[in-house]
Amino acid sequence: MTWISACALAVAPLFAEAAPERKPASSAKRGATVQKKAPAPKKPAAAPRAKKSSAVKASTRNIPKRAVSVVASARPQAPVVERLSLGRAYGLHEVDDPLALQSSVALVLDQDTNEIIFSKNEQAVLPIASLTKLMTALVVTEARLPLDEVLTITQDDVDTLKGSSSRLAVGTQLTRGEMLHLALMSSENRAANALGRHYPGGLSAFVAAMNRKAAELGMSDTRYVEPTGLSSDNQSSARDLATLVRNAYGQALIRDLSTSPEYQVAIGKRHLQYRNTNGLVYNPGWSIGLQKTGYISEAGRCLVMQAELSGRKLIMVFLDSAGRHSRLADAERVRKWLEGATQAIVSR
What we know:
- The chain is an alpha+beta fold and 348 residues long.
- The chain starts with a helix and ends with a helix.
- It has one domain (51-346): 3-Layer(aba) Sandwich (Beta-lactamase), CATH 3.40.710.10.
- 28% of the residues lie in helices and 19% in strands.
- Helix 3 runs parallel beside helix 7 (238-248) and helix 4 (176-185) packs across helix 5 (189-197).
- It contains 9 helices and 12 strands.
């Protein structure tokens, strides 16, 4: 276990499981009459900032000419009132990088050669939210369970950790293939949990199979406690997630379902339309072979992808991105950087 992973276990109790983020309520209106102005409170002392690192290492490949590696000091900052992701609490967002990414952790590597092209805090172990569902899909697929078997959503599939909603009401019946499609494409939590419950031996056996597969793949920084990613105890590193993407890419079903732009399921007389949670699959400028998004407050916005850029098959990992669309913007920054590097080489 890395030092950062140990910190995560120590700090995790500070982050109580909470409902999804809501917009703050507007301030109450001031009274018409004020007798006396209250003295302004003293400003609290500024929290110490994490040390920054500017370590840079060069790539030996042609595209791009150099690979950038940035590693942060992982000492947590002083506690603050607002709810922070673990990455922000550790000060990982304080680390500068040449591409000005909004993700506190990033890794881009060549799928065929395993060469690291860009890295930032790649060894940090953080919650991974719904990126968990990629392992859920891999275990289900490799078990070769019948995709046409009908599964039923029960009360056991209702989210009691975060209180998230779902369009799949208790009693909904869909095939295992449909559940898998919704879990990968639209990050449907109840569908993912139902897949785990209907595994031979039940949910506990399924979680054991997830961890067993991670160990088999050499994902030593990875731990799973449930199949949806709603628990912040599901944790991994960028390096381990790149390994997971590479292996999941070997399953044609996972490739197809995760990159499907939209999907419709029939529930009784109703038809529910679902869309992909990753807006880049609609962008013709991208050639994406596999993808998965994720979000809980402890993890921030997360994204993993396999994509072909500048003539190379790349695996991209972005963890703990600060804004709603910033993980996609970070992927775009990497793409433009690679295209610029390629053009510079061609023009020589």
